Automatic annotation (TrEMBL):
Pfam families to which the protein is assigned, alphabetical: ABC_tran
Name under which the protein is recorded: Metal ABC transporter ATP-binding protein
SUPFAM superfamilies: P-loop containing nucleoside triphosphate hydrolases (SSF52540)
Keywords (A to Z) from UniProt: ATP-binding, Nucleotide-binding, Transport
A GO molecular-function descriptor: ATP binding
Keyword Nucleotide-binding assigned: yes
Species, as recorded: Prauserella endophytica
Domain ABC transporter: 6-240
Entry annotated with the keyword Iron: no
InterPro entries, per database record: AAA+_ATPase, ABC_transporter-like_ATP-bd, ABC_transporter-like_CS, Metal_Ion_Import_ABC, P-loop_NTPase
Family recorded in the similarity comment: Belongs to the ABC transporter superfamily.
Amino acid sequence: MSRGVVEIEGAGLRFGDRVLWSGLDLDVQPGEFLAVLGPNGSGKTSLLRVLLGLQSLSAGEARVVGKAPGRGNRKVGYIPQQRAMDEQLTLRGTDLVGLGLDGDRWGFGLLGAGKRRRRIAELVESVGAESYASSAVGRLSGGEQQRLRVAQALIGEPEVLLCDEPLASLDLTHQRVVSELIDRRRREAGTAVLFVTHEINPILSYVDRVLYLVNGQFRIGTPDEVMNSQTLSELYRTRVEVLRVGGQIHVAGAQSALCEDEVHHHVDERVS
Ligand SMILES: Nc1ncnc2c1ncn2[C@@H]1O[C@H](COP(=O)(O)OP(=O)(O)OP(=O)(O)O)[C@@H](O)[C@H]1O
């Protein structure tokens, strides 16, 4: 197997006495779609923060496209958790998308202005946001904002796309639209996708492998290898039933396994 665009070796992360995960070895290949699952507080977002260079590992190493993680790595795109933007925000959709452009690469000078505009228009079109891209983003719906965030993350042509629950609070139609956009990028450009989610079903047909984190333990494998009663029961250390119904995965019992945890999990019984 070739070297991954994300390489993680012997990685551990702890805060005080609390070990989020340790001994994590993971290579993500170009074009691979990796779902990162696990209950609240299991360290999913922290893993993305490590790869963004915002959080240091307590042990081991991580490399992203051959380099130590660092802020402003142009080869890394990031789609943050869906949050409504301030209604007063007057930034236009095209401005938001343009924020994802890197000055050195695309040129901010006068000569680059036309090129920059064209590039933004291309991305706006690719996410089907033409009709509202000139509006103030604060006035747009959550789904419209999220499409623009996808365009912003893709405009720098990333080799690795880090997505932190990008579908949360979107309706089913927009979940499909946004996940299809992300899948298309990895198919057409070979971008590797690390997709943090509580709900695997909307992306199940795209997922190559799952990294499932629970209470400091983890499993990595295909959805079939990880999302089964035996593996999840081992991870949660209690009986968990995984049912496949109509091409979807339903997980029962995981919530009760976590009741004694300090966090009030809103664990989705169907997945986590
Ligand atoms: N800088 C920090 N210092 C101390 N604790 C931290 C820090 N960053 C994260 N944590 C803790 O680490 C745990 C994991 O957080 P993280 O956001 O990675 O979880 P998550 O799996 O993404 O959870 P969720 O599903 O709720 O978003 C949390 O309990 C959090 O409070």
